[in-house]
Amino acid sequence: MTVDHEPAGRGGRSWITEPAPVADHPAPTGDAVGDPDRLGPLRSCLTERVPADPPAPNPVLAMIHSAFLARTVATLVELGVVEELAGRPRSIAELGRILGVAAEPLQQLVRGTAAAGLVRSAGGTGLDEVFALTETGETLREGHPSATRDLVLMLQGADVLDCLRALPERVRRGETGPEVALGRSWFEHVRTEPELAARFDRMMVALHGGEHEAVAAAYDMDWAWNVVDVGGGLGGLTLALLAANDHLTGTVLDLPDVAARAQRTIVRAGYTHRCSTVAGDFFDGVPHGADAYVLASVLHAWSDADCVRILRSVADGLTPGARLLVVENVLPAGDAPHPGRALDLLMAALTHGHERTAEEFRLLLAAAGLRIRSVVPTASAVSVIEAERDPLLG
Ligand SMILES: C[S@@+](CC[C@H](N)C(=O)[O-])C[C@H]1O[C@@H](n2cnc3c(N)ncnc32)[C@H](O)[C@@H]1O
After folding, report:
1. What distance in Å separates the CA atoms of residue 183 and residue 79, rounded to the nearest whole number?
2. Of ligand 1's atoms, which has the minimum distance to the CA of residue 258?
3. 297, 334, 348, 393: which has the highest count of C-beta atoms within 10 A?
4. Would strands 292-296 and 226-230 be described as parallel, antiparallel, or unpaired?
5. Inter-axis angle of helices 59-79 and 103-115, to 10 degrees?
6. pLDDT tens digits for 50-86?
7. Tens of pLDDT, residues 149-162
8. Could you give the domains of the chain?
9. Ligand 1 pocket: which residues have CB below 6 Å?
């Protein structure tokens, strides 16, 4: 049986057919197929059947395959393969012995990630083939500043996978994945275990880390003396803004346990003289009287109704001349691609929130008595939406 590249229906042939009859031509003998000069009349038969263009890859297959690769990467982290390869190439057989795992499936997984660029072969064959981490593979090591390991362990962890499995039920019921699968909201769930909560904070570094410097580079803070970062997490954006603006002081507001971890980050970064933390709930209010308030990657995790509550709470703290900076993906209207679209699917699985277009932000802000002054793009996926109280809206 051969695979025919001509679609079924054209000329009545199916995709999988018996070989075309070659009765008029003598059957090839010996290594005729490997030797073009000996193909003889069979050549015309082959050129008729092989199309000039290779078949287009199935785009859906690539989408589904990416789930296998993601699980494989997480497995190599979970099994400790990445840590064992850190700074020292090892053979598959040696890795299998050290980790107490079966070498053959391990070889398959390591090979698969070599093709994806996480490890590279450093010689040898079979189970004696030696592998080393690539530069990208190094980012998966524990303690790497990119926090990629936390991203992998969180987004490929049992909780998120349970939420993804619950996606059809999430849509049927209108409850979020965590509400269906874990019995509570994502933020409630994350706070049930200190290690999970700390991992979530570090994962934010991996998801949004590079954006902080891009925002600090693109948005001019010359006009402001102080900034309150509302739902500021570990304070990465505040610290990037302070590093880029010597005159600026900052306050990170977050839930009590996160604020405590942010305080430790600020101490480690050596910014205690210019940066402090406030433990609080942004639904209850924010410190009044600052020049600038930031909401970075906060609104996308909340429904429109909750966003308006958060925005009203911040708007209440805005004195005349103060500005709110919403740092988020601003999706293009329509189907145009944008890096924020992948994050939107994560939001769909875990929260009642979503990524938004400029018009959707305008409507949300207006519902809280705010209007957009400008939208500043950055070198990263996010933009800075600068807003102020709208005197016409009260
Ligand atoms: C997606 S993270 C964004 C963190 C940070 N702004 C960044 O850009 O990396 C959302 C943050 O909102 C905080 N948060 C959630 N609910 C909150 C609440 N009710 N009050 C204050 N912060 C809250 C979370 O603890 C978390 O740090």
Report:
1. 29
2. 25
3. 297
4. parallel
5. 130
6. 667 888 889 999 999 999 999 999 999 999 999 999 9
7. 999 999 999 999 99
8. 59-139 (1.10.10.10), 209-389 (3.40.50.150)
9. 187, 204, 208, 231-233, 236-237, 254-255, 258, 281-283, 296-298, 301
